[in-house]
Amino acid sequence: MTHAKKSLLMLSLLGSGLFTGCNTTSLQQSSNLSSSTVSKYSLDFNPQNYSVQSVEVDGKKIAVRAYENIVYVANPVDTDYQIMNIYIPEDYFHDKSIGAYNAATAPIFFPNQVGGYMPGKPATLNGRGGMGGGMPPMSSRDNTAGQTNTQTNRSGSQTNSVATALSRGYIVASAGARGRTTQNAQGIYTGKAPAAIVDLKAAVSYLHFNDARMPGDANKIISNGTSAGGALSALLGATGDHPEYRPYLTALGAAPASNAIFAVSAYCPISNLDHADSAYEWQFKGINTYKNIKMSMLDYNVQRQTSDGTLTSDQIQYSQLLAQTFPAYLNGLKLHDTHQQLLQLDTQGEGSFKNYVKQFVINSAQKALAQGTDLSVFSWLTVKDGKVVDLDFDQYLHYLGRMKTPGAFDGRDLSTGENQLFGTEKIDKQHFTDFAQTHNNAANATQADAQIVKLMNPNPYIGLAQSNTASHWRIRHGSKDSDTSLAIPVILATLLENKGYDVDFALAWDKPHSGDYDLTELFSWMDQISQQTSKK
Ligand code: DHB
Where does the record locate the signal sequence feature (predicted)? Predict the structure, then answer.
């Protein structure tokens, strides 16, 4: 909808008293729960169905209308997760502006809290909101020896991204999504791939469908997520409106509206799962010790239990086999750098692509140095006259450390979280690559449908004629993150750049696997992309 048209509509709604309706702290959903024979839940946003909440940011209290637990599809399978929380600054109901935005122009911040491809709840205003999501156990691999226990939030920041967004004039809409362990009362798995991305798309459609009924501009939806949530954020951006998702959306009774978004923020996306095993071994082959980190949740705090191990000779052999397959895949992508130099690897895994990856680490160190970080402890960096001029890649990899055993994602024994993601209604865990199926060592292992594996990978959809791919992308990955290979975010960013999208990609210096650690910079970028485009 055009801004002018939306302004008019907002004015008429204000005039009608619809946006100044009574406050209610009672349970939501009177309209959404109304049943009909066709659809169980209404897809019409009800502006009057809110509670008054507030949040404090930098000592300033912000009044907010909270629309919580909105079921965003007409025929949900799981109303614990297929729900969305929408938070709107009270000012927008009084014809006021916040910074550069007003009720017609405010962008919609769309953070998800998915972690580990587990079911994810929508973010809340003062609760777990925007802390980078819940971190579930990632692996059923047993860790027994040498355990240490640390508690961290996934976010390096104390500030909640939901509160930050509202303080800066954004509308916040956060959707829950089904995940790999979701089951119904009959024991049928209902959250296997591609359920999570279908759910987030359906929530986006709800926002487009209701664009005229609520403040905010559905043409400015900016998604955010970390890790599995980062991968889903990237998937949303890559695959907007692609017809291959349509049958799933139709089955859920998703709103008949676009599911495209304006921009993507993705922290350490665990994406491109079907090539992530070979990318991991390309990077870590030769590093035969590992620190497996098993994650679990306690009171929404992430527990990271580490256990040390050494690869068996069988695992070392499998690492080499996987690593050998990576150059052919990478070369086939025909990526190039900003000087149009082709990025390639030889059969040993050496070449321009490796130098290109290395340069991102150097750039990250350079930025940290410029900000006053003492780099002298990183003996593998060469710093001359205030410039980071080189790094020893092998030593860098030792600092980084291997976390996963080969195959890191498609486990030969079906023991990973990703094996569980690619199960079916009746089968909990499956392989999702030909390679792991061929080298399988679990009993009765089956393999996921190739089309379903494709639906979980953003890369093949970027820039297709049938995809409405997001225009703006911000991708961050920690330089001390070994949950996936650096090649994974580098390939994603470069594919996008090569196809002409606006990409801000960097490695965050010395950051482990985490997100939302640089909210000031994230929101500056969001403001810049939201305000630079011409008014529609
Ligand atoms: C996440 C981490 C992983 O190592 C992985 O394989 C999948 C997901 C996560 O933190 O969401």
Answer: 1-21
Q: Residue 419 domain-assigned? A: no
Q: How far apart are CA 50 and CA 181, in angstroms?
A: 31
Does residue 483 have a pLDDT over 80?
yes
Query: Does the beta carbon of 227 lie inside 6 Å of ligand 1?
Result: yes
How is residue 348 written in tokens?
A: 């040993």
518 Cβ closer than 6 Å to some ligand 1 atom: no
Once rounded to an integer, what is the mean pLDDT over residues 361-368?
98
| CA-closest residue to ligand 1 atom 2 | 116
Each residue's pLDDT tens digit, 372-394: 999 999 999 999 999 999 999 99
Whether the predicted pLDDT of 292 surpasses 90: no
Q: Is the CB of 478 under 6 A from ligand 1?
A: no
Parent domain of 154: 3-270+463-530
Residues 15 and 109 in one domain: yes
Ligand 1 pocket check for 483: Cβ under 6 Å: yes
Residue 307 within any structural domain of the chain: yes
The pTM for the full model equals: 0.90
Residue 9 within any structural domain of the chain: yes
| pLDDT, tens digit (0-9, with 9 covering 90-100), for 259-276 | 999 999 999 999 999 999
Residue with the two structure tokens 């450390």 = 401
Helix axes 487-498, 313-333, angle to 10 degrees: 10
177 shares a domain with 129: yes
Mutate to test the pocket of ligand 1, among 139, 140, 270, 277 (most ligand atoms within 8 A of CB): 270
Token pair for 293: 């980190």
Q: Measure 229 CA to ligand 1 centroid, in angstroms.
A: 9
